[in-house]
Amino acid sequence: MGPVPDPVTSDTAHPAKTDVVVIGGGIIGTSTALELAERGISVVLCEKGTIAAEQSSRNWGWVRKMGRDPRELPLIIESLRLFENLNARTGAETGFAKSGILYTCADEAEVARNEAWLEHARPYQLDTRMLSAAETAKLLPGMGTKFAGGLYTASDGRAEPQKAAPAVARAAQAKGAVILQNCAVRGIERSGGRISGVVTERGRIDCAGVVLAGGAWSNLFCGNLGIDLPQLKVMNSVLRTEPLSGLPETNTWSAKYAFRKRLDGGYTVADGDANDVEIVPNTFRYFTKFMPAMRSQWKALRIHLSGAFLNEWNTPRQWQLDQVTPFERLRILDPAPNRKATEGALQSLIAAHPGFAGAKVAQHWAGMIDVTPDAVPVISPVESLPGFIIATGFSGHGFGIGPGAGKLAADLVTNARPVVDPSAFRLSRFFDGSKIELIGGI
């Protein structure tokens, strides 16, 4: 069972009409709803399960510019600016802190790879810098492992995944947004070639705009509309410890482990590289588009063939709006964690830093990450369906970029001037002959 997000009380009335419907109650969907509500635009957020029950509460909690694809940098810079004021904006604790983030370098080859990323980031004038071996050791007191150096960004930080999206959702409610949990959207209705409404399991809502922030479910939802969204799911497993004292405050990544301090005094720990990938029908459907990612990340992928193939094969890809949908049959993706990976990460961390030897594991969990072929999100209008905006495929980078992505999605659905140039996030890049490539770190 996954971590328990802070609770959000659903609104009881099912509105007959609104300006915009947001589908999905993770950090992207709630941030979009808050942006719209603050602008005086009526918005209903529909979540098939509960707010932040999936990957938005299950991620590492890192809020980073460092190591990102350069296409994401303008948006994460804006998102970090929003995170700095998020407690005041929501009137709640989100756990945001500028703790700094460090990527350790085991050898000179890793130093060179990080220096290459710095060249990509140089135009953005970040405070990221390379550390010497001595500077890296100073930042990690008590660490037994000696590193060749590190890539460090002091202004990067952390926040609490179980708190952030719920805080944003409650703030959106306070500004007039309607939050409907356990209310799946079955599909979209059109009139004159444009969106005219959505049909939920509870009834119809008239609207002119829809933002799909459905995470790992987005491909399935789009397929029923005849929209091709190249997307696969990747599972990452995490553990948290009971509170510990006297250990590093800086979020730290190494190949065999990654850790960050939690607001409760414990630590979130995960394998620094490895993710689990199930072979499913979509694996073959999008094999060609994902080949660059497969070649680049092959060593970090644990590929399996299991019951997930048949589960996806037997999941309907088409349905009528008066039928029960897959979103109602399975409300929350709650995969069993790979405990071998999490326990191995903790043991590697203990071997590197003896101070973690007394760590008591409080919980293991896993989450399903929505990935695109180039590991860059889709935040984009759909030309064939005016009024429909997709905001998904954040590829494990979504928590930190969430507030900025919500702002951009709100701009696009209202035809406002976008906060950043959205062209890098267009859906059409996967079909217009653009080169699919991965740039950046983890």
What does this structure look like?
The protein has a single domain (20-430), classed as FAD/NAD(P)-binding domain (3-Layer(bba) Sandwich), CATH 3.50.50. It has 442 residues and is α/β, with parallel strands linked by helices. The chain has an eight-stranded mixed β-sheet with strand order 5-6-4-14-15-16-13-19, with helices on both faces. 30% of the residues lie in helices and 23% in strands. The protein has 14 helices and 21 strands. Helix 1 (27-38) packs parallel to helix 7 (161-174), helix 1 packs across helix 14 (398-414) and helix 3 packs across helix 14. Strand 9 and strand 10 (194-200) form a beta hairpin.
Features:
single chain, eight-stranded mixed sheet, globular, FAD/NAD(P)-binding domain, 30% helix, 14 helices, alpha/beta, six-stranded mixed sheet, 442 residues
Please give the structural blueprint.
Blueprint: E1 20-23, H1 27-38, E2 43-47, H2 55-58, E3 62-63, H3 73-84, H4 86-90, E4 101-105, H5 108-121, E5 129-131, H6 133-139, E6 149-153, E7 157-158, H7 161-174, E8 178-181, E9 185-191, E10 194-200, E11 203-206, E12 209-212, H8 218-224, E13 232-241, E14 251-254, E15 257-261, E16 267-270, E17 275-278, H9 281-285, H10 287-297, E18 301-304, H11 307-313, H12 326-329, H13 339-352, E19 361-371, E20 378-381, E21 388-392, H14 398-414
Parallel strand pairs: 1-2, 1-12, 2-8, 4-14, 12-21, 17-18
Antiparallel strand pairs: 3-7, 4-6, 5-6, 9-10, 10-11, 13-16, 13-19, 14-15, 15-16, 20-21
